[in-house]
């Protein structure tokens, strides 16, 4: 789209890599199930006392069984999981370079803005990188939505530039 503005699309539909443990509430809990729940509740408390608050919060959310999504602080996650931050940055560079190429190929003489909605990509928070996110999410999926604007050179023979304005989205099935 010519110019410096375009509507950012929504993320594509997310499909978890696995189907999970199956349908919810299909049988009455057994004594073993209740014992497992008590142990999980103890793990929530233990995690809070040992600095694993994010993992504890996620486990508590799971135990609450609301079915609601639980937000993840993606900016903090990027800061604490360098491989995730690097994957996002590399994807942004690729998005920018692709936009520049498309703008050049179209013969654009002014800024051109493209909507961005990348496919879901798998990632993993390793224990070495971030114990917090290793226990809180482990493996997860991420994508980016937003826009990228390609700018022609400001001087003859100069380099094309780009500006990526995306939001990183994370999805994780708690299992």
Polypeptide structure, described:
The chain is an alpha+beta fold and 175 residues long. It has a domain of 107 residues. It is 39% helix and 19% strand. Helix 1 runs antiparallel to helix 2. The model has no long low-confidence stretch (mean pLDDT 89).
Task: Give the helices and strands, then pairings.
Blueprint: H1 31-49, H2 53-64, H3 74-80, H4 82-106, E1 112-117, E2 121-124, H5 131-136, E3 139-151, E4 161-171
Antiparallel strand pairs: 1-3, 2-3, 3-4
Helix pairs in contact: 1-2, 3-4
Main structural class:
alpha+beta
Please give the radius of gyration in angstroms. 21 Å
Mean pLDDT across all residues, rounded? 89
Oligomer: single chain
Number of helices: 5
Unreliable spans: none
Biggest beta-sheet profile: 4 strands, antiparallel
Strand content: 15-25%
Shape: elongated
Number of beta-strand segments: 4
Distance between the termini: 42 Å
The residue fraction in helices comes out at 25-40%
User: Topology as H/E string?
Assistant: HHHHEEHEE
Q: How would you sum up this structure in a few lines?
A:
Helix content is 39%, strand content 19%. It is α+β, with helices and mostly antiparallel strands and 175 residues long.
């Amino acid at each position: 789209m010519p110019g410096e503005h375009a509507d950012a699309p929504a993320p594509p539909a997310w499909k978890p890599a696995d189907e999970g443990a199956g349908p919810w509430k299909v049988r009455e809990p057994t004594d073993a199930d209740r014992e497992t729940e008590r142990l999980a509740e103890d793990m929530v408390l233990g995690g809070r006392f040992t600095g694993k608050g994010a993992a504890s919060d996620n486990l508590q959310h799971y135990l609450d069984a609301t079915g609601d999504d639980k937000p993840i602080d993606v900016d903090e996650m990027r800061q604490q999981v360098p491989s995730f931050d690097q994957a996002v940055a590399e994807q942004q560079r690729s998005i920018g370079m692709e936009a520049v190429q498309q703008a050049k190929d179209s013969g654009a003489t002014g800024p051109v803005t493209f909507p961005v909605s990348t496919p879901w990509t798998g990632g993993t928070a390793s224990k070495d990188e971030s114990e917090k996110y290793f226990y809180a999410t482990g493996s997860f999926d991420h994508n980016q939505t937003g826009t990228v604007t390609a700018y022609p050179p400001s001087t003859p023979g100069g380099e094309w530039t780009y500006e990526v304005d995306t939001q990183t989205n994370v999805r994780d099935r708690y299992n």
